[in-house]
Structure prediction request, 629 residues.
Amino acid sequence: MRRPPLRPASSWGPPPWLWLTLVLFLVQLPTLIGHALGVGPGLGQFGEAGRGRFVTAVLIVVQLLPLFFLLAAVLALLAPRARCRVVERRYGLLAPDDPLMAPPVPAPGNPGEPAEPHFSVAMSAFVDEHAPGTRLRLSTQDGLSARVYPGSWRTTRIGVFAPLVHLWQTDVEAARAVLLHELGHLRQGEQHVTGLGSPFTALVRVWPYVLAAFVVLPVTLLFATGNATARLTLAEVVLVLFSVPKVLLLVVAALWSAELGADRFAARTAGADTVVRALHRLEKGDHGGLARLYHPPVRMRIRCVSGAETTRVQLLLTLLWPLALFAQLLLTTLGAVPAYALLGASSDRAVRQVLALAHESLTAQPAWWATLAVAVVWPLVTGGRPARRDPSATARSTRAYAVAVLFPAVLLLLGLLPLVSRPPGGVFADAPAGPTAPAARAPSGGGPGAGGGAGGGATTTACPSRAAPRDPTRPPGLLTFTPGKPSPSGDSEPDRPPGRRTFRTLDVTSAAPLSGTRTQAQEVGDRLRGARWTLHDDGTLTADLAELPVLRTTSVDATTRLLTGERTERTDVSATTTWMEARLVAGAGRTARLDLIRAATRDMRVVVDCREFTSTSSTAQCLSLSLGG
Prediction:
């Protein structure tokens, strides 16, 4: 006579955090892609002389890679049959009646002694007893014990590997507990998101290698080549380094919660001691190497199995994912402060800005609202309401339920209160005073529900305009040449025929900084070497260098001509104005001396993922050139 399926006395379990992670990713997919594609090129436009472009490109790949895995998870969800074929080919999984897996013909024996059923027959009967329609597939590979995966939209399969077969032959009760664990995933529909062939699991498994190949190595090269001096490239490095653990936080928390929930189902059905025994027997295979990332530590699983119905364990199962979401917010804050500092903000203004952005992101993201909704609705949907009459081990803890609801509710309440304000005048010290369009979150990479690169929260206001900055204003106190001042050399300008005169730079006799560094002054002098100058009939002086403005005569005497000019260059993200004061002193023959006072101011403004970055830099030099006709 067939026994009814064994079921736990209570149906409560952790909320479906795996499904919530996937849904949040789908909701925020456009924002995540825009952030990953925009933050690198946006900050790269700040770069000095293109420094760190290779590293910038690699870091963009790091931010995009999690999106590929999450998109693969969506595709696997939509095409379970294709996933099934790939999984079974990859792991060599065959049906129990396949000729390679079929039980051998029993040898003749005592006719009165019943033959012991083959392990595949016994396993199939046990699985069918608890989950009718679920089919086994067998493999001779090592390293895994058993994993669930979808056969189609309506069917599920369990892959059984060599270690579980050995366990079945030595400790059948522990082996049954392992199968019950996989059936625990089946009860929550998690075989479509996790299990064999899951892109979620693949993301966690390959991420350490991604970290080494796409972050550690390029950043090391950045420092080795000296390009780390580009502070804006360093700012992006900081953002990506802090986004690396953020990518894993929610996915790992969701996977751990699902594993602990499946353990609890197995413990309620087969007994906690049996599950603990199975965990010890299969620890090396299922939890060795990188499997420790997508499976909770064995000690943690044993403690949760031993106290499966206690309030502490229920709190852990319910709050594991919300705590990971909160940790994401903390990492966003920790990474944004040094990034803003590298972009030119003072530490005080950076901290205030980041705290304000983190405060706004609490209510701007859909993740916290979704967490609160799931915490409230999930017990009602599963029928696991807090029990008053029977405070036994099978009842959901009222305290755990209350904390699970209060944790996101309190954070959302804090986000709605006006507790933190942005620094007046913007985050950067040279930002103009006045209102600025608020951004939803601090600079970061994130993932689903991130408080700022694998993240993506929705903005509460319109993004700042992408218009380039206005033309810079003339630096105060810029030196000028006094009209009528006699030539230091005392030379007089010889008679010459009227018309255009041409010169070329013979030598740069001096190049001194008025502001900025000596190296910058020398670089300007180097660019002027060999330049060709033309003095036109209308009194204008031009050079064959595009960066120099047209100089117009303001005063002329017998030996000296004073000139001034201004030129502005604009791009999509910058405006650079160069001011020049010049004194052209005629020498003997076709020689002349050109004294220059040059000042240049660059205002840069970039809007990256609805966040505004501004920067202002000014330099001034005094140069003296020897010209020849």
